[in-house]
Input
Amino acid sequence: MRTFLLFLSLFLCSGPAAADGRLNGSDVAEIRAVIHRQIEALRRDDARGAFALVAPGAQEAYGTPERFLDTMRTSYQAVYRPSAVAFLDLVVMGDEVVQPVQLTERSGARIAAVWVAYYAMQRQRDGAWRVNGCRLVQPSRTISA
Output
């Protein structure tokens, strides 16, 4: 619950994510690339690399790359070690940009839980996109492999 409240406070207090409210194909591609790079950094236990893709306000809340990695490892296992990643349709709500990502988490060799991670994205002053929070939703279904 504490993690959700941290996400909610960062998400609601982040300021305009899309600046002028318009996104183009390059924005969508960059947003997805940032999330993909962060997932790859987490797979390698690259705390600094994953943390570098987090928006400044969220970095401040976590404090250190190691604390961020610890949180991902313990509370966001599906984000930390997904076996499959699929980007869903990007959502713009007012000035907020959210990229839903379907993540598959293997539990042993035969069962997979499917999660949806809602990434709140924030455009930085230099135009770059950063992750401003992630809400991981309970598995929606179980798949036998």
The longest strand covers residues 129-144. Confidence is low (pLDDT under 50) at residues 1-19. Helices lie at 2-12, 25-43, 47-51, 56-62, 65-75, 77-80. The radius of gyration is 15 Å.
